Amino acid sequence: MLENKANPTINKSTGLPRKRFYRARAHSNPLSDSHFPIPLSPSHVDYSLHYPQLFPSSDQINGSKIQFADIGCGFGGLLISLSTLFPETLMIGMELRDKVTEYVKERISRLRVANPGQYQNISVVRTNSMKYIPNYFEKGQLSKMFFLFPDPHFKEKNHRRRVISPHLLHEYAYVLQVGGIIYTITDVEELGEWMKSCLENHPMFEALSQEELEADPAVKLLSTATEEGQKVARNGGQTFQAVYRRIVPAS
Amino acid sequence: MEDPPIEECEHDDINKTEQDTQMEESKQNNKDVEVAPALIAVHPTQNSVAVSVGSDLRVFNVPEDCAVTLVDESGGASHNDSIRAIKYGANGKLFVSAGDDKLVKVWSTESWRCISTVYSEKRVSALAVSNDGLHVCFADKFGVVWVVDLPGVDGSEAPLNRKAVPLLGHYCSIITSLEFSPDGRFIVSADRDFKIRVTVFPKKPLDGAHEIQSFCLGHKEFVSCLAFICTPDYLQGILVSGSGDSTVRMWDVISGSLLDTCEVGAKAEQLKFDTSEANCSTVTDICTIPDCTLIAVAIQSLQGIMLLSCNLPSETLSVVKVVSIVGENFIPTSLGSSISGGLLWMVTGASKLSGSDHSSLSRVKVISGFRKSSPDSLEQEPVVLGDCEIPGGAKLLEKLQGSISIDEKVFLAAAEAVKTAMCNLLIKKQYSVEKRECRKRTRNDKKMR
């Protein structure tokens, strides 16, 4: 850890990057044209870049694919909690803001160094998930999708920028396998109701029962694992969650 | 660095506070966008041929050898801005037209009366009629596909101005083409973000289309056109698509897998006499010849068309030949064909050309030599018909072109107009760092202090 002393962006005691050096705006416009690289198709996603220890070379196929996606992963708190909870599962965070993505990248690589053998199953990518989900995942590839504290977009004019919307749910239903689970949580009551009603009205999703929610270890992380969730808890705020399962629609 | 908050779909949302120079530039861009290429559509049994230029819709009845007068007593508004899509229904009973005036007009091909006028919230970029003729789908500039049902088309029900409901959405990407699969199971939509989406067309379309069958991914630029090859052996059809990446690709819609790619741009490049222009081999339109496996391709730099053949058993595409049109600067903007007739109809032209006496112009040409008897090869050499050999002859040309003879200069203008229209609409704008900063400073969503 000697080299860290010279690097002020790294916290000396934890060896992790410090958030203050990765300041970013709270929001980003998902409608603007993107100028970052996008894989041509899911088969073009280079797993060796994301999971170098598990995929030593880019042409190696060991059969396993990304199963969890954290959409709008922010500073990556959920990914890091999930990594040790599901050590055998590959997962990826998707974030539109450039600097935030850089922070998560650095955080993961530091964690990998500090804890050999751990945190090899998580990674992050800068992308606009509202546009390019089908470029990253095949049909039925994912078993869990997380939407934690998304941008509320209060104005009605901007509702189409919301990450949970009737049209986008079709795409999420496409990449989720039957039985896969979509997790949403927010501290904005209006948005919580919106997300719940979108999911409720979609024929390919059904709500989890109370028992199922209590038995699911990922549900506990929704309000505790992320930086945003911790902030809400600190301020004594309320949260609203909606957890739904992908089902085969009754025809 | 954050991207400037420019919404990509609507280009007419100009920032009012921008500096004068930028203002002028935006106006210029806006003008270019309004130039619409001429379109052609042919009735499935060649009962009629329709051409649209700007807001003008021209129809010619081929068997009766007379121009058609459109009757609009539906009470709805008439087209008053560029028409962006025209299409016949698969059974030939319906014809639909739509465009920048946000109107979708449904016509009966029997009486050529307007059955229904549907008001869209946004400008319309693509159209499709379901195979049973009961639903019309249209895509708007925000990437939403809407559906309207049309029961009582044959009956005497009074014309209704129906309200459309959203069917599916591409996230804020202009939809360039909409097609139903020949078996009617899927609706396929292509967008300028390189995507082709295959959606199961639901039994109750008014409840929305929830199930995505596949995404066909592989194009590296905007997808400009879609078509299905359908032969008696392949009734479910094989999808082909053309793109700004100068390729035509063939897809399996069930799995979304890419079957073959044909680099038509490279081939067209070899033929070009004028090599000064680079990178203009965008595929503007493709048209499959019914009941055989030939595909006609219109390319932005090619005077004429390229013919591709699809080998269905081996699932490959290959270039058969290039049919050049000599003497005239004819670069087609749109292609059409019918089940009977064995003809390929082509049009070139554009509306609202600056620096031209004509407000809008079009030129129609026909290639013959496509027959059912030889499904994967040409029975005879395809021949570009002379004006008098075209069915309907001078009468047809007078109706569809507006005049019989067309000034040579306008061809060049048309080709140029189509190119800029496509560039403005479909190619992502690249901003320099300074320009980006300037746009950020003048963004109008900032709070005033």
- Uncertain segments of chain A are 1-5
The share of residues in helices of chain A is: 25-40%
**Strand elements of chain B, count:** 28
- Provide the number of structural domains of chain B: 2
Question: What's the alpha carbon Rg of chain B, rounded to whole Å?
Answer: 21 Å
Indicate the CATH class of chain A: Alpha Beta
Q: Tell me the CATH topology of chain A.
A: Rossmann fold
CATH architecture of the largest domain in chain B: Beta Barrel
Give an overview in words.
- The complex is a heterodimer of chains A (about 250) and B (about 450).
- Chain A is an alpha/beta fold and about 250 residues long.
- Chain A has a single domain (about 65-245), classed as 3-Layer(aba) Sandwich (Rossmann fold), CATH 3.40.50.150.
- Chain A has nine helices and seven strands; from the N terminus they run αβαβαβαβαβαβαααβ.
- In chain A, strands 3-2-1-4-5-7-6 form a seven-stranded mixed β-sheet, sandwiched between helices.
- In chain A, β2 (about 90-95), α3 (about 100-115) and β3 form a beta-alpha-beta unit.
- The longest helix of chain A has 17 residues, at about 100-115.
- Chain A starts with about 45 loop residues before the first helix and ends in a 5-residue tail after the last strand.
- Mean pLDDT of chain A is about 90; it is low at about 1-5.
- By secondary structure, chain B is mainly β.
- Chain B folds into two domains: about 70-220, YVTN repeat-like/Quinoprotein amine dehydrogenase (Methylamine Dehydrogenase, Chain H, 7 Propeller); about 225-390 and about 405-430, Lipocalin (Beta Barrel).
- Helices cover about 15% and strands about 40% of the residues of chain B.
- Chain B is built from five helices and 28 strands.
- Chain B has helices at about 20-35, 265-270, 395-400, 410-425, 435-440, and strands at about 40, 50-55, 55-60, 65-70, 85-90, 95-100, 105-110, 115-120, 125-130, 135-140, 145-150, 165-170, 175-180, 185-190, 195-200, 210-215, 225-230, 235-245, 250, 255-260, 285-290, 295-300, 305-310, 315-325, 335, 345-350, 360-370, 385.
- In chain B, the strands form seven sheets. A four-stranded antiparallel β-sheet of chain B has the order 1-2-3-4, with helices on one face.
- Chain B is globular.
- The model of chain B is unreliable at about 1-35 (pLDDT under 50).
- Chains A and B meet through α4 and α5 of A and β12, β15 and β16 of B.
- Chain B: It comes from Theobroma cacao (Cacao).
- Chain B: Keywords: Nucleus, Repeat, tRNA processing, WD repeat.
- Chain B: Belongs to the WD repeat TRM82 family.
- Chain B: Required for the formation of N(7)-methylguanine at position 46 (m7G46) in tRNA. In the complex, it is required to stabilize and induce conformational changes of the catalytic subunit.
- Chain B: Pathway: tRNA modification; N(7)-methylguanine-tRNA biosynthesis.
